[in-house]
Amino acid sequence: MSDKHSTLGGTKPAPAKPMPSVDDPFNARFWAGLRQGRLMLQTCMDCHAPRFPASRHCPHCHSESGDWREVDGHGVVESFCTFHKAYWPGFAADVPYSVVQVRMSNGVRFYSNLVGVDTSAIQMGMKVQAVFEPVDGSDVTLLKFKPMAEASP
Description:
Blueprint: E1 4-7, E2 10-13, H1 28-35, E3 40-44, E4 50-51, E5 66-70, E6 74-83, E7 97-104, E8 109-112, E9 127-134, E10 141-147
Antiparallel strand pairs: 1-2, 3-4, 3-5, 6-7, 6-9, 7-8, 9-10
């Protein structure tokens, strides 16, 4: 995929995709973990429930006691949607593309993209594994998912 496109006036850079804000103090450890290739989630120290996005209070028991734990990155596709129109100019070269809702093994849900699989092959119930995609020219690393290899009998 090229990062430039032609116009009557010549070649100019392709529009940028929207980027997450990684300077939010509540979620800084999540973004730092992704840059290190680790999936970190804030976890309640009283009821042990993981949560994302991070917050001051646990949504389950309302405790203010929380710490960051690395999680395994395994999940299941609960739902997905395939976009046939680019609602942001930066995604025009990717159409059609799919957004998946992944329920992690600990219950936390993420919206993201699958890599290494055709859009037509995405299925609800597909087992997936977290992967980390650095964004060129920034300090952002995105959380994406890939299908898990099936174990041989």
